[in-house]
Amino acid sequence: MKNASKRATVYFDPDLHRALRVKAAETDTSLSELVNQAVKLSLAEDAEDLAAFAGRASEPDLAFEDVLDDLKRRGKI
Q: Which long-range contacts (CB under 8 A, 24 or more apart) does 6-10 make?
């Protein structure tokens, strides 16, 4: 059984909407498909970021002040 699509109203900046319409026409893709692809890509990037954060969760925190103090001590700033 195929998943039923859900309908949503989305408001685009007029220039962005025009660009999407042109891209859809040139790629023989619907505007909905373009938006779905963009949203999936954005969510995949979010998932990668969250995985990276989780992978670094056990690393010690480093205070900004400590970094500045270290740079001063080493004559970098």
A: 10/35
Q: Is 41 helix (H, G, I), strand (E, B) or coil?
A: helix
Whether the CB-CB separation of 32 and 12 falls below 8 Å is answered with no
pLDDT over 60 at 1, yes or no: no
CA-CA distance, 32 to 38, in Å (whole number)? 10
Residue with tokens 């080493």: 74
Q: Into how many domains does the chain fold?
A: 1
Give the domain extent around 55: 14-73
Look at residue 71 and give its three-state secondary structure: helix
The dihedrals phi and psi of 28, each to the nearest 5 degrees, come to 55, 45
Instruction: Name the pTM for this structure.
Output: 0.68
